[in-house]
Amino acid sequence: MTAAAGPPALAEPARRVGRGWTAALSLANGAIWVGWYGPLQILLALQAAQLAPPGTAKESVLAWVTGLGAVVSLVANPLFGALSDRTASRHGRRAPWILAGVLGGAAALVLLAGARTVPVMALGWCLVQLTLNAAFAAVTAAVPDQVPRGQRGAVGGWLGAAQILGVLVGTGLATLAGGITAGYLACAGFTVLATLPYLLRYPDPVLPAGLRPPFTWRAFLAGFRFSPRRHPDLGWAWLTRFLINLGNALALLYLLYYLRDVLHRPDPQGGVLILTAVNGVTLLGTVVVGGIWSDRSGRRQPFVLWAGVLMTVATALLAGWQTWTGTLVAAALLGVGFGVFTSVDFALMTDVLPAAAHRCRDLGVINIANSLPQVAAPVLAAPLVGHLGGYRTLFLTAAATGLLGALLVRRIRGVA
């Protein structure tokens, strides 16, 4: 599978991966998103409303719990990525962390199912973020490990499709399982079972123990130092992803409450499920096509730019057209834009990675651009909704943030 002599784990892949490998890895990726988004879309919001102490707003409880979990995610993804890069197991560098991560994530979801206080709820969600980020870091690193550059847009598209299907399945399980406890247990079971095909059928490239560099704490910690001056393309790509994800997180954080308190939907949980389905259908219509088109054209920037612009338009619609119909249209447009962005931006990120020996660690640092918005969004969203104009101001802020991110992709020089 490699273009050069040496261990496959450290070589640049040249042989195209097959459909079975792509499908199994995508299913594992989707399983992780089920474990995240069943809680994020439905269960944590319901639990926050149920467990909020008297005099404490449910929005504040939800913001604190998700914010703490996102802080854990900030540390966990690059940390486990760096440990994965150093793993010399006979089962490979990535597989042991995928297995440990999903088993730990399932156990943490079971803990959440039994939470009866806000501190236990917060602890459970932090453990979910800790463990599932270990699995997620390893899954994403499998792409630059085993997929050649000219196929990464397509594979990224299938991973993106699995991601939105994971969000949809997680939301569906949380909604239809029959309660908060049953919802958590259903998400936990799915997360483990859907990961097994990849772990059982496809071998992971092995890093020979003799090629693993000696461990020192100083060198290990220094590896997390991110220098935009030394790697400017990586810096601009990171900032693009961060701002677009922050805009998306601001728009979606209080979706359940927006449907209930502003649009006065009689069934806000069902409304979230419908919007997720609409968003998922349009996303699925573009995520794979966008990745394949990007591979064939040999370009990444224009796809990321115009996807970000379309997402900005969709978010602005939520501010200016505050009806159920307007929300449906916005969800559809957001899916189109986010589909293209998901696949092509992932390929762009793998194209700017500095070194094969540290792929998972560097992807972990990049993935902070996914998790940091989950920390920043609650901090920004709560005062915007509570004191600075409500949901209209929230959505306009989200639109402006995403647009800035889309425009900054033009600063990348090494990738067209």
Question: What does this molecule look like?
Answer:
This protein has 15 helices and no strands. It is mainly α. Helix content is 75%, strand content 0%. The protein is globular and about 60 Å long. The relative contact order is 0.16.
Short key terms for the protein model shown above:
single chain, 416 residues, mainly alpha, 15 helices, 75% helix
Strand content: under 5%
Mean pLDDT: 87
Q: From the alpha carbons, calculate the radius of gyration and give it in angstroms.
A: 20 Å
Biggest beta sheet summary: none
Low-confidence stretches: 1-5
Dominant shape: globular
Distance between the termini: 26 Å
In total, the number of strands is 0
Binned, the helix content reads over 70%
Helix and strand element order: HHHHHHHHHHHHHHH
Structural class: mainly alpha
Give a brief outline of the structure.
The protein has 15 helices and no strands. The protein has helices spanning about 20-50, 60-85, 95-115, 120-145, 150-175, 180-195, 195-200, 215-220, 230-250, 255-260, 270-295, 300-320, 325-350, 360-385, 390-410. Residues about 1-5 have low confidence and may be disordered.
What order do the helices and strands come in, and which of them pair?
Blueprint: H1 19-51, H2 58-85, H3 95-113, H4 118-146, H5 152-176, H6 180-193, H7 196-201, H8 217-222, H9 232-252, H10 255-261, H11 268-297, H12 301-320, H13 324-351, H14 359-387, H15 391-408
